[in-house]
Design goal:
Blueprint (H helix, E strand, L loop, with lengths): L3 E8 L7 E8 H19 L1 H4 L9 H15 L1
Antiparallel strand pairs: 1-2
Helix pairs in contact: 1-3
Length: 75
């Protein structure tokens, strides 16, 4: 499963107060999150992507493809 670390995440219980729980974060999870962050950072900064013209942007599709590839590799 590769190297892993731990983080704290909020757990919604559905009724009553939620709780903060310790969750394991694998190396694959980190790769997915990093790829998504690169895509999101670009999409929120790029004028074409912001205007809804992402198809005209030559950068966004490779970033999205890298994110999807990271998801597939984690399976």
């Amino acid at each position: 499963m590769g190297e892993s670390g731990y983080t704290e995440r909020w757990l919604e219980t559905g009724s009553g107060p939620g709780a903060v729980v310790r969750a394991r974060v694998t190396q694959a999870d980190q790769a997915i999150q990093a790829a998504y962050r690169k895509w999101l950072d670009h999409a929120t900064e790029c004028p074409s992507c912001q205007d809804g013209a992402a198809r005209e942007c030559t950068v966004v599709q490779p970033l999205w493809d890298a994110y999807r590839a990271a998801q597939r590799e984690a399976l």
